[in-house]
């Protein structure tokens, strides 16, 4: 009983009941229109015939009119069309109507009125549709149609519609129940999928049958959300593994040095040297944690609310100037081809950080006497792309996606200081801005391009 009450209180049942009620109301309106129009059509047909009789017979002279009316009454075997001719004083000259109702004289068109007939005799007033028209002799001719036909027609139509209403109502209720059961079935499937996701099965997805169905569109949106959720959880797990892996080496080295120094150090100089090494390891671990926190800050898309028009040409010059001393110390040529002012919509500090990371990587991995070139492509004052090209070892095509991951370090990076997070920071900044990034071979070296959106 409780389950039945819960089912009846569900939204799908209420929707189905509303649909069934709407169908029944529509059917009731349709039946009413059919009933009214059919009866009205019969009345119009009768009135048209009465007017035609009145027009044709009233033109006759009194003698011929009486003979014609008597012939009409004699030919009416079913006594459904009474008629009569009345003298100016009101007595009957011909026909089977006893008295002339005064309301017929006052009205020029057909009306419903009670008539007393002489054939068959001694009948109460019979409701008929009648019309009275003046004759040549100053009297009136009355033509009528028995209303029993309309009464039987109304009963027939009413019964027919009532008989059809029962299966129509059953069909509406059945259709509503089918829709309700179908909707409840889909909701159960969705609920089971959501419960599986809540249980940790992030690969579970909602079924999608058609892209046009609103419910399927909702399922597609939920599936897209689950894709992002699974990706975020996977990244979080991978980040935790990377952090543990990257911090394990400096922490292990730190513990070993402390233990060795505790056992072997015999003078203040040795303790001082040990302390310097320990501080270096601590700084390395702290810098790694700072890099991780920086990644989290960049991934926060709320920063997009602070985007402004940034002069990409000036930004590129400023970034290159920061690394010009270190490039000159290694004998590396750092050239900037920025051109006139070109603007893009961005966060100045974040975009500066991304470009600095690209130049820093280029300077780090370019051999002595190599070259690094920075270019800006603009069009009509709008920055289109920022390129950093070096003559270093480059990045193999198979690694161009992998290098954008956190803490990834290729074989050629082991001899260079860093955490393997620079390009990951650049990718996060590019993603935040809605820009795109491409890594290509410069033959030799690496060509990294940030494609900027329109300002």
Provide an overview of this structure:
The protein has 455 residues and is an alpha+beta fold. The chain has four domains: 2-39 and 152-194; 58-146, no CATH class; 214-299, Helix Hairpins; 306-451, Heat Shock Protein 90, CATH 3.30.565.10. The chain is built from ten helices and twelve strands. Strands 2-1-5-4-3 form a five-stranded antiparallel beta sheet. A five-stranded mixed beta sheet has the order 7-9-10-12-11, covered by helices on one side. Strands 6-8 form a two-stranded antiparallel ribbon. The longest helix is centred in the middle third of the chain and has 51 residues, at 148-198. The relative contact order is 0.06.
Cα-to-Cα separation, first versus last residue = 64 Å
* Assembly type: single chain
How is the main sheet built?
5 strands, antiparallel
Count of discrete domains:
4
Look at the structure and name the CATH superfamily of the largest domain: Histidine kinase-like ATPase, C-terminal domain
What percentage of amino acids are in beta strands?
Answer: 15-25%
Question: If strands are numbered along the chain, what order do they take across the biggest sheet?
Answer: 2-1-5-4-3
**Would you identify the regions where 5 or more consecutive residues have pLDDT less than 50?**
413-419
CATH class assignment of the largest domain: Alpha Beta
CATH topology of the largest domain: Heat Shock Protein 90
- Please tally the helical runs, counting DSSP H or I stretches of 4 or more residues: 10
Shape: rod-shaped
What is the number of E strands? 12
Structural class: alpha+beta
Write the H/E string, N to C: HHHEEHEEEHHHEHEEHEEHEE
Estimated helix fraction: 55-70%
CATH architecture of the largest domain: 2-Layer Sandwich
Overall pLDDT confidence = 78
Q: What integer value in Å does the Rg equal?
A: 49 Å
